[in-house]
Specification:
The protein has 596 residues and is an alpha+beta fold.
Length: 596
């Protein structure tokens, strides 16, 4: 059965990725979008507006009304929703993924454990959440449903367990509609290694080698690579064969990923993602395959394009995730207008074109792009990624590009000795924005005071100049500049944005009328770090609190952000539970205690 028309039930870069694959295969495509979110629809042959990317009924109706035969869910949203997959097939349509029954079993960590045990896959020791032995710590609390690091917390001491269980349950209920939790042994210093698997309706199952996704922050992947570096050969063979055995146990069809925690010669099953992964491009780069093409072929009933013996790895590939977030402020997601972007001469997966602006809202995940490079070996791939990030710039909103460049260029990453906890205890130099480089100021000078008929946007030679620099707190600094560097840069006439090694510096033209805005309120005022919803209020007016005590929490961009007191004092202002708040809005006020 050939597929003639496919609806893509997603947005952003993955929707564009699948729409592009449909065009390459000559398949008519249908895109869905919510009001105001249309950046991904350019490649579609037909477009339908829906109320939400989670509205399965509306998406199925869009497929019917446009004559689509199949629905590709991408990742996130409804991609691992068994009820949606079942509704798609019940409507006489093809779901591009495994069966609803398989999603139901493998999409839950508790049931997936049982399948893994039957298939002979090693699993992590598990504990009753209400009776964790005192000598079991540290333990990991995680949601049984869903993935992506949501509802996941490391607990190091028994007295922290109750709060972690409550928080994880609340996050899991909000993200997945299911607050069932697992408590397992937590392995310190482990690596996150996963195996890409694929099955077809004829019963063929293969693995497409492995990936390392150990560079994580709060259980969210930041850098991924293939194949996994410096892996014990016995462990590599064992996790690959175990992944295939797991798939055979459930009769798996289409793309999936089996994830493991690896430490030395030990490997434990973590979970299975019953969909395409965000990091699938690194596997494509080293195996010379197109996994979306494979998905569509298998969904049409075709056999896998390659046998296991025909799948080999050549070279090494690395992917980084570019987020609209501020590493210097605890990686808070950012919302606002991207003025302009500069992408490198590498594989870039994004709906934001070169030198094109876009709006980033708090309604969706803050990832704005993936950058992928490949080399003949890992060292060459690392150098290629460092160079790519140096030629990348996101102007107008804070991003993690500079942080990514420092991570990839660090000795820890270059030597492949990172583990899943590395970034959460990262050295300060990875988080600290470097001092303003003199050549960045010279570039800004040429932009803000161009020579007549110059017409360029990056710098040539410049004479020594003194330039006022606006840092992240809105404070001006004077620097002396001299440069012949060419750097990504742009200006609106009053300000200039210049990127150096991925880090963006903002320069302001002093015209006597502009004053930088101070962005940080006093310590007594606890304000919303970004637009969101107040989901917890832990104190009342008149309560006495200690420094560091949690006052409440805001949910923004699918993250729960705890709000704490900067000092001991008395609470005089309290936010309203459930209230929608703007960035910088006052939520709590803690009046300092008078010294006696």
């Amino acid at each position: 059965m050939a597929l003639h028309s496919v609806l893509v039930a997603n947005r952003g870069e993955i929707a564009a990725r699948v729409l592009r694959a449909c065009r390459e295969l000559g398949i008519r495509s249908v895109a869905v979008h919510v009001p105001g979110d249309t950046a991904h629809i350019a490649l579609a042959d037909a477009v339908v507006e829906v109320p939400s990317y989670l509205d399965g009924a509306a998406i199925i109706e869009a497929a019917r009304s446009t004559g689509a035969e199949a629905i590709h869910p991408g990742y996130g949203f409804l991609s691992e929703n068994a009820g949606f997959a079942r509704a798609v097939t019940d409507a006489g349509l093809v779901f591009v993924g495994p069966s609803a029954d398989v999603i139901e079993v493998m999409g839950r960590k508790d049931r997936a454990r049982e399948v893994a045990e039957r298939a002979g896959v090693p699993v992590m020791p598990r504990y009753d959440p209400q009776a964790v032995p005192a000598d079991a710590y540290p333990v990991l609390v995680k949601a049984a449903a869903g993935g992506g690091g949501k509802g996941m917390h490391v607990v190091r001491h028994p007295e922290q367990l109750a709060e972690a269980l409550a928080t994880a349950a609340r996050e899991a209920r909000a993200a997945f509609g299911d607050d069932t939790l697992l408590v397992e042994r937590y392995v310190e210093g482990g690596r996150h290694v996963e195996v890409q698997v694929f099955g077809d309706e004829q019963g063929n199952i293969v693995h497409l080698l492995d990936r390392d996704c150990s560079v994580q922050r709060r259980h969210q992947k930041v850098v991924e690579e293939a194949p996994a570096p410096d892996l014990d050969p016995g462990v590599r063979d064992r996790i690959r064969s175990a992944a295939v055995a797991l798939c055979r146990e459930v009769g798996y069809v289409n793309a999936g990923t089996v994830e493991y925690l690896v430490m030395g010669q030990e490997a434990f099953f973590l979970e299975m993602n019953t969909r395409l992964q965000v990091e699938h491009p690194v596997t494509e780069e080293v195996t010379a395959t197109d996994l979306v093409h494979w998905q569509l072929a298998v969904a049409a009933g075709e056999s896998l394009p390659l046998t296991q013996d025909e799948i080999t790895a050549v070279g090494h590939a690395i992917e980084v995730r570019v987020y609209a977030e501020d590493p210097a402020a605890g990686f808070l997601p950012q919302a606002g207008r991207i003025r302009e972007v500069w992408w490198p001469g590498a594989r870039v997966e994004s709906v934001i074109g070169d030198a094109e602006g876009a709006d980033v809202t708090s309604s969706f995940d803050p990832m704005i792009a993936k950058i992928v490079v490949a080399g003949d070996d890992r060292a060459e791939a690392v150098d290629a990624m460092v160079e790519a990030l140096e030629m990348t710039a996101v102007f107008g909103i804070r991003s993690n590009v500079g942080f990514l460049r420092r991570v990839v260029d660090s000795a820890t990453f270059r030597d492949a000795v990172m583990d899943t906890g590395w970034l959460d205890t990262a050295p300060e130099e990875l988080l600290t924005t470097p001092a303003v480089p003199a050549h960045a100021a010279a570039v800004a000078a040429r932009l803000l005071w161009p020579e007549p008929d110059d017409g360029w946007r990056s710098a040539g030679p410049a004479a020594p100049l003194r330039m006022p620099v606006v840092d992240e707190e809105g404070i001006r600094h004077e620097v002396t500049a001299w440069s012949d560097h060419v750097l990504p840069a742009t200006t609106d006439g009053a300000r200039a944005w210049v990127a150096v090694e991925g880090e963006t510096y903002v320069f302001e033209r002093p015209d006597g009328t502009r004053r930088p805005r101070v962005l940080h309120a006093g310590d007594a005022e606890v304000t919303a770090p970004m637009p969101g919803t107040v989901i917890a209020v832990d104190v009342a007016q008149g309560d006495r609190v200690e420094a560091g005590q949690r006052l409440g929490a805001v949910e923004a961009m699918k993250m729960e952000l705890a709000l704490t007191a900067a000092h001991a004092g008395v609470v005089t202002e309290v936010a309203t539970l459930g209230r929608q708040v703007k960035m910088g809005e006052l939520l709590f006020h803690v009046e300092p205690l008078e010294e006696s």
